[in-house]
Amino acid sequence: MGANANSSAHGVPVFGLACGFCPLRDWCWSAGLGESALVQIHDIVRRSGSMPAGHQLFCAGDHFTAIYAVRSGSVMTYTTTVNGYQHVHGFHLPGELLGFDAVYPERHRFNAVTLEPSTACFVSYRDISELCRRLPGLQTHILVVMSRELSRQQLCAVGSDATQRVANFLFDVEARLRRKYDSAFEFDLPMSREYIANYLHFTPETMSRVMAKLQRTGVISVDRRHVRLLDVARLGQIAQSDHPA
Amino acid sequence: MGANANSSAHGVPVFGLACGFCPLRDWCWSAGLGESALVQIHDIVRRSGSMPAGHQLFCAGDHFTAIYAVRSGSVMTYTTTVNGYQHVHGFHLPGELLGFDAVYPERHRFNAVTLEPSTACFVSYRDISELCRRLPGLQTHILVVMSRELSRQQLCAVGSDATQRVANFLFDVEARLRRKYDSAFEFDLPMSREYIANYLHFTPETMSRVMAKLQRTGVISVDRRHVRLLDVARLGQIAQSDHPA
DNA sequence: CGTTAGTTTGACGGCACTCAAAAGTTGTGG
DNA sequence: CCACAACTTTTGAGTGCCGTCAAACTAACG
Questions:
Q1: Is the pLDDT confidence value at B159 over 60?
Q2: How many CA atoms lie within 13 Å of B37's alpha carbon, on the beta-carbon side?
Q3: Residue pLDDT, tens place only, A26-40
Q4: What residues form DSSP beta bridges with A122?
Q5: I need a labelling partner for B234 at 20 to 30 A (CA). Which of A132, A149, B166, B192 fits?
Q6: Of B89, B103, B245, which is closest to A147 when you measure between CB atoms?
Q7: Chain segment A100-109, per-residue pLDDT in tens
């Protein structure tokens, strides 16, 4: 990959940037890393210019070259099957890393696309692997990130019915977006209901019905993509209520 | 953890063993590692004596101390929710590693129990972390294993209907058990149908109906836990046929 | 041989999918 | 600013898969 200080392999303008000054640094690279570590990370991280909505970061099948960090906006990963059906695999919000799906066999298994105008950082896998050898804390953090990713994957499966899965989803997104908003339990969903439905394994119609019901019963308030969690306790009950058996 | 050469924290007799002579070494620690690496791994790996079916390797909430490798038999991981409902998270067959779920936050999120008389190796996380710093190939392999685990998690979610999920499951298990059997596409399931159903998110009754239908249509042959994949091509169609939309 | 746990089979009901159409929202050009 | 098109979201009616409940059946074990 012939990336230099002025262009990336993806045709997006690139600027060097000090990770030490990034407001998201604690989230991205863990608060445990010292100042000198951040300087070293700075040397290998590149920042993309602003990307429009729908910009493709990488495609399934691409050779694995880099790990990405969402800086602003949001990124969706998805697969396209042989039959042309698309499945949303996950959403990545500011401060979150993506690309680890390709560690083995060094080829991306997902497509990654921006859902809105976004910016991202990226760092070549080769560089970060080498740096890991010098910074044990970083190596641990990579494992932590993958581990967290592993546990998140459980989420979409949790819940026997649609209402439960939506409740879990709302809690998850709220927690991840909390930094962005002043008042808690109120936020804007960066993705369409169609994508949420796909991600949670049901249809847009069902998604719409569930949201309507939650609003009708006063648990949440919805206006377009803006969501307010009104009765957090009740939503928690809905999310956690197990298999009725 | 006060493990020494003769006893483990779990009350199971322990023996030092040379990884270099283990028939599963390529599967466990990747074929890429040289002889000297295997000797170093040998120094930190401990082997359990034979454990009976139902033996608990670790519990959810336990402090994360070690990574385990199934040597013979099989291990199931599962969670127990506050309401007492149990969910099967995965099955681990000979040559497979487990315990990575606890890298963060250094506490196990699952319970792990043997499904049949089994043996396992284990290695303290502290030791292997340190060894990773000296053996870059090992560090990469740890990431590979976690990455593979990540992709496996998709599996249980794949498939809109029960038949499809079962087909995928059978393919997956067959591939992982292939080493154990002379003739391909024929194997014994190490787990009950109840556990499979739980893992795939439906009821034992549905599981039973699906298996019956697959047998009636001549796609597979089932006797108790023994399974033969008769029409592999057809089973592949069933597994891969996407969302009808 | 009796007990127990696991598996199979059947009847019934509900949740979510399908099909269809209306209503609301976004973007574009006149 | 309005008109129109394209898309997303909502709502309704009908159907089917799978969950639920219940009971019969089959190993496995003492």
A1: yes
A2: 19
A3: 777 776 777 788 888
A4: A46, A68
A5: B192
A6: B103
A7: 878 777 889 8
